[in-house]
Amino acid sequence: MHIADNDKQHAQSLLDFIDASPSPWHAVAQIAETLRAHGFKGLREYEPWQFKAGGKYFVVRDDGAIVAFILGQQALSESGFRLVGAHTDSPGLRLKPKAAYASNGLAQLGVEVYGGPILATFTDRDLSLAGRVTVSTSEGMKTHLVKLEQAIARLPNLAIHMNREVNEKGLVLNKQTGLPLIYGHAADSAIAQQLLLQQLAAVLEIAPEAIFSWDLALYDTQKGSFWGLDQEFIADSQLDNLASCHAALSALITTVKPSSTLICALLDHEEVGSESSSGAGGSFLLDVIDRICLSTGIENEGKLQAFANSFFISADMAHAFHPNHAGSYEPCHHVQVNHGPVIKTNANQRYSTNAVTAARFMQLCKQANVPYQQYAHRTDLGCGSTIGPIMAAQLGIATVDVGNPMWAMHSIRESAGVLDHRYMTAVLQAHFAS
After folding, report:
1. CB 212: neighbour CB atoms within 10 A?
2. What pTM did the predictor assign?
3. Residue among 242, 236, 304, 303 nearest 267 (CA)
4. In the chain, fewer beta carbons within 10 Å around the N or the C end?
């Protein structure tokens, strides 16, 4: 399979973005930096908003969610919104508030499972910590991003000599007793805790006692890579769903003078149900829309007209066909890597797609000269969901659920296609231009 240089460069940009974003808070910081570099102005929720015609803006909530928008050239009530939604979080392991303790002379870290990761994939990896830490300063309480670059922790597998059936029954890890990580030597738990505080304090260049609290995630220090005979595949952590975030961001920053008002909503906590102030179940996106309407003189009827003229693309990754597990897939719905974005449908509204919104996305793909695929889950298997049904219910806007095909979803190291990332970006560009 031939991979053009521009396709590989776009995929490399994605890998660089992921490698610089080991937590949702890092991802949002990276996105905000990119938006500023492309002329977007940052807004704060506690300040009044004033807009210029055709202006480009963004706002961050709780460090882990960001909504960016460009005001359209046409009247909002007539042209509506063109929205893309994705999520910044990924399943994994999060550090507990009092994480460090000693066991038989070893320092260990207690973790909590976030979302639904494939736990076995976290074993025997070079792990480190990243997230945000709240500290005391002379100017008051402040929150800083932190990323420990070197591998400091590991979850060693139990030798096969003590787990003889692991290859027949699979690796099963008790979430409480099987996941604490080894990160050093310590005679007691007080020393173990001090070792952790010292590591964080050294990166932040503060005293250990200045640390109040943290939101810290474990991440794999191995960087993203290309693989395959023609280097047509990519592997990295958090492709679900930072790949969709990157595609949406790439499409937004390359759109000039759109007719409709464009919104890119990259929200947190999808992997745990979206019920938070910065998740799709919260008020963030609707608050931004309300303030856009207020600041541009659109009253309630005009807003409802705008909603009726709008289209929302919920972008989240999709399940690629795995030839070793053909029985896990619905017949006639075997989506292939590097064959284009996937339209996801579920009769029970686990996805928001219907016949009309699917056709609308197909039309966008044709305009962008991008292939597309369709996916339905096996009826006898539980189907995952996305922010799509949540946003469709909240806003009453026509919505479609789509995503690029990938393997090993929720593994610490996932795989996808180089071409698909360019395809998704192109169709989102067509959406923003429509």
Report:
1. 12
2. 0.97
3. 242
4. N
